[in-house]
Specification:
Elements lengths: L6 H9 L8 H8 L18 H12 L14 E4 L3 H4 L19 H9 L3 H13 L10 H33 L2 E6 L2 E6 L8 E5 L7 E7 L5 E5 L1 H4 L4 E5 L2 H4 L5 H6 L3 E4 L11 E5 L2 E5 L4 E2 L4 E3 L3 E8 L5 H4 L10 H34 L16 H15 L7 H19 L13 E2 L11 E6 L6 E12 L2 E3 L2 E2 L5 E2 L25 H8 L3 H12 L4 E6 L2 E5 L3 H12 L2 E6 L3 E6 L2 E11 L7 E7 L5 E7 L1 H5 L7 H16 L3 E9 L2 H15 L5 H12 L4 E12 L3 H10 L3 E5 L4 H10 L9 E5 L4 H15 L9 E6 L2 E6 L8 E5 L1 H7 L5 H10 L2 E4 L4 H14 L3 E6 L5 H6 L2 E5 L6 H4 L3 E3 L4 H39 L12 H11 L1 H10 L5 H6 L5 H4 L6 H26 L13 H23 L5 H21 L2 H6 L9 H5 L3 H28 L3 H12 L30 H5 L63
Parallel strand pairs: 15-29, 15-35, 29-34, 30-33, 33-34, 35-36, 36-37
Antiparallel strand pairs: 1-8, 2-3, 2-4, 4-13, 5-11, 5-13, 6-7, 6-12, 8-9, 9-10, 14-37, 16-17, 16-28, 18-19, 20-21, 22-23, 23-24, 24-25, 25-26, 26-27, 27-28, 31-32
């Protein structure tokens, strides 16, 4: 899959894994404060001190970074084509370095990192103890071999990863770009590009660094860029250079002589903001984000452009948004660390008790053994107890064996392979399988409580399609059968044939044939509808070959409308600042463009004023229906009611709507209005207010034409996935940079927001107090009796204090929508708890117009005050900080870019796979890991406690109760494979039942399967089992004789009996825990028992004793003891006593307090097969009074751009398009009614339209006669 990544993905992958310097916090530190040059003493002369730079350069040789690498940078000063001027500022070059080690630092740094794990340090300490002969009762190799194996495997993995980072660094840094040096263009490596250089980019090239656009090959000095790698959006964005730099065009002499000086903000992570000035020949020019090309973008449909490097390498906005790469650990990992420390304390207590016992025993009983066990010089009872303490530290170390950590990593690796191999998460269309990019977080997938999702490219495909429309009171877009019943549209449904239109877009699909027939019949209202859509927009057209049109739309919804209009016979062909050329039903017509009344977020509409070839003046308007309806003529009342019904129906289907209206203008009035418009547009004061007044004046008494319905296509299965996750009690928050109306519309489309909700609160205040009041008001509406202050529970592990805000139950379902500027206040430390309380009471939360940093802050807020596991899912670079902040990061790998994938923990191609990742793989992984830990602690505590009881019968002498070979092989062979088999293959129910009952996911969120309480129960269970395993064999062997009368009550026979009972008991216990038996599990369990007996008889044979006398002292013990019936009876009795209480407890628990798992498994047993197929849900026709978001997502300012008169090529004279033969055409724009519709002006209906003009179209083929 790696070969399919876009080229820039490699850049981002390597850049985003730098962990030492480039973090959001470092950006904030650099933005606040000033610096002083140590050479000159001048403030702000240098961005950091020279002394620190020299120190850092020395330290960097050893792979180390200093805590204070740079002083704070306040303002950046850059002079074009002047490296000598820019060099003293020590700006970062364009080279990147993401590797952690070099040849000299790898071994010490890697070992230092590994021994920061408490387990590795613990086993190193044990190894040192075992090298002391006075206290060691076990061989040193029992610790050094597994420790060396773990360290070596981890070091090899780290070395491989770092070699890949070195390789990627070289690949990125060695890319070539043309740089203007000494008056000529030279091909230079990316790593050699410096701030202040002028570089040339060509079409389809990645932007090398953050550039100030100077000039381009496109008229108006525009460039088209694709930002999919930054924000996941595939529609092209437009950037425009200043006129003063655009005049240089591609003249190398002019560019080489350019010495403009840029004063701008320091490096930061704001993708949507740039502030600075350009000084050219003493004149200052303002710079903003529209003139900046960001690294990570791709140049499209632009032959060439020149840019000035402003930020390079690690200081680019792309890098600044990467945030700090942190090592993510699961909640089970954190709990295990706390438990391990508790176990160490418990181990110390046990060893202290046994050490004191040894001292007392030596004092009272030891003197009688001095004759044949003389003490060493200087060793008294107290010192003997001290040595015994350390001896038991070695013997009892199996409470935390190193095999625990090795087994955990193997289990996680195996479960991550299941994700990689899952064919049901494979997306064939793009050949993209699911990928577990980390192997340390699998079980955390089974505990997710909050999901934070991006919208564009994650929930949606970022593809807009013209779906339906309402024209003159009639709805188009649905398909009916002969009986007039509405049909569901499928792949078998007949598509409209657009072959009559040679300029049609072959990719456009529509199913309602009646609309095409209405166009062919030249119904005036239909022609006026599409004429409006062909004229009222800011789309740019490029015609490479005749008839081969390429539209550059600033927003995908405008592109969808113009493309639909093109297919229905009204083809937008070209534009100049003064005119718009369209092809109407095969005839090319040129309209004079007199004014564009531009869109903004307050107006929520745009209008154009044009003069037709016949000289008629007309205003065309499209916008939010609620806004347009307020400005209609009184005669439109009846048609407005019908159109409103259609709009409500569109809203119920989650479509995005626009209302369309027109107005014929009087020539004299327009001349006067145009003069006032010119005065207002050139006014210095109150310009915007005066223009708004003029717009309001002319945009009134309009005639309604109809409405459009555009579908912002969701990814397949998104609503069903969100519904399933909601049933699993997972809360989903959408964090998007889109405007409120768009995000709200998607919320309803994907079932996050529903009409049945009690209320959807909107927080959009612009001051801190207003935001606080809106949040408080919403909270009190949801829960009037709520306390003013939240219930906060303080806690902490290992000295880390935490505060958890308790969940508050509410009656009913609510939603919350908050925009970016309100969220900025809500995230303030004084208000964050209020925001969190209100948001967590809601079923769904949507945050609009948020920045990448705000996304991460929202995630951090929930992590900080909620004892819950979070997951963030996105597809663009603007989601990277959110993905890194969450406990689990998921990247959507598709056509929208790979940036999020490269920073994620898991990735797949479609949002719908998330439910399988969580409800199946996540839940199984969590269940398996918890079972493994419970069983592992049980078997090792049981093993160790037998040593503890035996100490009271061996004079606290630190003698082991088991054979040394059994101690070595117990965790390595005898019990390793069965528990691994259970942890890799066990499942309570299959995947279909997991989907049928999403409630099975809830126990993981509540941490029910493995917690401190369950650990204590495990220890108590081990204590009971160890008592049985020690005292039953001890009592059975006491004074026992063989069948032939010989004594078998010796130490070796007792050790064999105790260890045999232990192995059988723990294997049987694991068999009771296993819910899903496979062939592998059978082989592992019974094979391990068979292996135990085979190894025991081999090691205790005469041959092994004769060859290795000192290593195998248990000669003949196995055949002498295991041949006695009393021994097997003891094994049976011991095993039954170990298992019986567990069976009884589980029987009563399932009978009296069954869990959701018990109930579902009971249903599975009853079904004896898979779950019954869910009943097909009937397609419900929804109608909604909620107004869907208007399909108009482009930004303000494009009207001025389109009407600009500079740098625009001349358009050829209008020509007649050939090959188009419609049934006729209308000679003018006569707005008249038609049958089945309404005539708002009261004029007679067209006589050309028959009475039966396709009122209902039946989407079936006529029978062939």
């Amino acid at each position: 899959m790696g070969n399919s990544f876009p080229e820039s993905s490699v850049v981002f992958q390597r850049e985003c894994h730098s962990t030492s310097v480039f973090s959001s916090s470092s950006v904030l530190r650099r933005e606040n404060g000033r610096q002083t040059c140590t050479r000159s003493g001048k403030t702000d002369c240098l961005p950091w001190t020279c002394r620190e730079e020299r120190r850092d350069s020395k330290m960097s040789f050893f792979g180390l970074s200093c805590a204070k690498k740079k002083e704070k940078e306040v303002e950046r000063r850059i002079r074009a084509n002047d490296r000598e001027f820019n060099l003293p500022f020590k700006y970062a070059t364009n080279a990147i370095k993401t590797s952690k080690y070099n040849l000299f630092t790898f071994l010490p740094l890697n070992l230092f990192e590994q021994f920061q794990r408490i387990a590795n340090a613990y086993f190193m300490f044990l190894l040192v103890l075992q090298l002391i002969p006075e206290i060691s009762s076990l061989s040193w190799f029992t610790t050094v071999v597994p420790l060396a194996l773990v360290l070596s495997v981890t070091a090899a993995k780290d070395a491989t990863d770092d070699l890949n980072r070195h390789k990627s660094d070289r690949q990125v840094n060695n890319r070539k770009v043309e740089v203007l040096i000494n008056g000529e263009l030279r091909s230079e490596k990316w790593m050699d590009v410096q701030v202040g250089d002028i570089i040339k980019l060509e079409s389809d090239q990645f932007v090398t660094a953050d550039l100030l656009l100077l000039s381009s090959s496109v008229p108006l000095n525009l460039v088209y860029i694709e930002t999919a790698e930054l924000d996941g959006e595939t529609n092209l964005k437009v950037k425009q250079a200043l006129a003063v730099t655009g005049d240089m065009d591609d003249s190398i002499e002019s560019l080489a002589a350019f010495d403009g000086e840029v004063h701008c903000e320091p490096p930061n992570n704001r993708l949507d903001k740039f502030t600075g000035t350009l000084v050219v020949r003493g004149q200052k020019y303002s710079l903003d984000n529209e003139k900046i090309l960001l690294r990570g973008c791709t140049l499209r449909n632009t032959e060439w452009c020149f840019g000035l490097v402003v930020f390079g390498g690690p200081e680019t906005k792309l890098m600044q948004n990467c945030g700090k790469t942190t090592f993510k650990r699961t909640s089970i990992d954190r709990m295990m660390n706390a438990l391990v420390l508790c176990i160490f304390g418990f181990l110390a207590v046990m060893c202290t008790i046994l050490g004191i016992g040894n001292g007392i025993w030596e004092q009272q009983e030891g003197s009688t053994f001095i004759a044949f066990l003389p003490r060493q010089d200087g060793v008294n009872s107290a010192f003997s107890g001290f040595l015994t303490f350390w001896s038991y530290v070695i013997i009892l170390n199996t409470v935390v064996p190193i095999s625990l950590y090795v087994s955990v990593e193997i289990i996680r690796l195996g479960n991550s392979f299941y994700i990689d191999w899952d064919r049901k998460m494979y997306y064939a269309r793009s050949d993209t399988p699911a990928e577990a990019r980390t192997t340390t977080l699998n079980e955390e997938l089974g505990q997710i409580k909050y999901i934070f999702s991006d919208k564009t490219g994650t929930l949606t495909q970022n593809i807009m399609t013209f779906n339906k429309c309402s024209i003159n009171g009639k709805c188009y877009g649905d398909v009916f059968d002969f009986a007039g019943q509405r049909l569901d549209i499928s792949e078998r449904t007949d598509r409209v044939d657009f072959s009559f239109n040679p300029l049609a877009d072959p990719k456009f699909v529509f199913y309602d044939h009646s609309l095409v027939e209405a166009v062919k019949l030249e119904i005036p209202e239909v022609h006026g509808f599409f004429r409006l859509l062909a004229l009222c927009h800011t789309v740019m057209a490029e015609e490479k070959n005749e008839g081969d049109l390429l539209y550059q739309a600033q927003s995908p919804d405008e592109g969808a409308l113009v493309t639909a209009t093109r297919n229905f016979g009204f083809v937008f062909q070209s534009r100049t600042p003064e005119s718009i050329t369209i092809v109407e039903m095969g005839i090319q017509r040129r309209y004079e463009l007199l004014a564009i009344l531009d869109f903004n977020n307050v107006r929520k509409r745009m209008s154009v004023i044009v003069r037709s070839p016949e000289g008629k003046l007309c205003l065309y308007c499209k916008g939010a229906d609620t806004i347009v309806f307020e400005r209609l003529h009184q005669s439109c009342g009846k048609m407005k009611d019908v159109t409103t019904e259609h709009l409500n129906e569109f809203a119920g289907e989650g479509l995005r709507t626009l209302a369309l209206a027109y107005k014929e203008l009087d020539e004299e009035y327009f001349v006067l209005w145009r003069e006032r418009h010119h005065e207002a547009s050139t006014a210095i004061e109150d310009r915007d207010e005066r223009l708004d007044e003029l717009y309001e004046e002319i945009e009134k008494d309009m005639i309604l034409l109809g409405a459009t319905a555009v579908e912002d296509k969701l990814q397949d299965g998104v609503p069903q996935t969100i519904e399933q996750l909601a049933k699993a009690d997972i809360k989903i928050w959408v964090l998007t940079g889109d405007k409120q109306e768009t995000a709200e519309n998607i919320g309803y489309s994907c079932n996050m927001l529903q009409e049945e909700m009690n209320e959807v609160f909107v927080v959009s205040a612009k001051s801190s107090e207003e935001v606080r009041e809106e949040l408080r008001s919403a909270r009190l509406k949801m829960k009037p009796e709520a306390e003013e202050k939240p219930v906060i529970i303080s806690g902490g592990i290992l000295g880390k204090k935490t505060k958890v805000v308790q969940d508050e139950a509410v009656d009913g379902e609510y939603g919350l929508i908050i925009n970016g500027h309100s969220l900025a206040y809500a995230l303030d430390s004084s208000m964050e708890i209020e925001f969190l309380r209100t948001a967590c009471m809601c079923k769904a939360v949507i945050c609009c117009r948020v920045t990448p940093l705000q996304k991460a802050q929202v995630v951090e807020l929930v992590k900080k005050f909620k004892k819950a596991v979070t997951l963030a899912i996105g597809d663009g670079a603007n989601d990277v900080s959110m993905i890194k902040a969450a406990h689990i990061g998921v990247g959507i790998s598709g056509q929208e870019g790979m940036q999020a994938v490269l920073s994620s923990d898991f990735s797949f191609a479609q949002f719908r796979y998330l439910q399988r990742l969580l409800l199946v793989h996540g839940r199984w992984s969590y269940l398996r890991m918890c079972k493994f830990l419970r069983y592992f602690f049980y078997k090792n505590f049981t093993f160790t406690f037998v040593h503890f009881w035996y100490a009271f019968f061996c004079g606290f002498s630190a003698q082991t109760v088991y054979d040394e070979w059994f101690i070595t092989l117990y965790n390595l062979i005898y019990t390793a494979l069965p528990v691994l088999g259970m942890s890799l293959f066990d499942q309570d129910v299959n995947d279909r039942w997991s989907f049928q009952y999403p409630q099975l996911y809830a126990p993981g969120q509540l941490n029910m399967y493995f917690s401190k309480t369950s650990f204590v129960r495990c220890v108590l269970h081990s204590g009971y089992s160890s008592l049985v395993l020690f005292f039953i064999p001890y009592a059975a062997m006491y004074n026992t004789v063989r069948d032939d009368g010989k004594d078998i009550a010796d130490y070796q026979s007792f050790a064999l009996l105790a260890q045999t009972c232990l192995v059988i008991a723990v294997c049987l216990q694991m068999g009771l825990d296993m819910a899903y038996w496979t062939v592998v599990n059978q082989v592992f369990v019974w094979g391990s028992l068979a292996m135990y007996f085979a190894v025991t008889f081999t090691f205790y044979s005469n041959g092994m004793y004769l060859i290795f006398t000192a290593s195998f002292p248990f000669i003949g013990t196995a055949r002498n003891s295991l041949s006695q019936p009393s021994v097997w009876l003891t094994i049976l009795l011991t095993t039954m006593l170990c298992v019986l209480p567990v069976v009884a407890y589980r029987f009563l628990f399932i009978l009296l307090r069954p869990t959701i798992n018990d109930k579902v498994r009971f249903k599975v047993c009853q079904a004896k097969a898979g779950p019954p197929p869910p009943a097909p849900r009937a397609r419900i026709r929804r109608s909604s009074t909620r107004r869907s978001a208007y399909a108009f997502s482009h930004t303000q300012g494009y009207g001025d751009l389109v009407t600009s008169r500079r740098f625009l090529r001349q358009v050829p004279a209008p020509r007649q398009s050939a090959g188009f033969s419609p049934t006729g055409r209308s000679t003018g724009f006569i707005h008249m009614g038609r049958s089945g519709g309404y005539s708002p002006t009261g004029r007679p209906q067209s006589s050309r339209e028959p009475e039966t003009s396709l009122q209902i179209y039946r989407a079936v083929k006529e029978p062939v006669s």
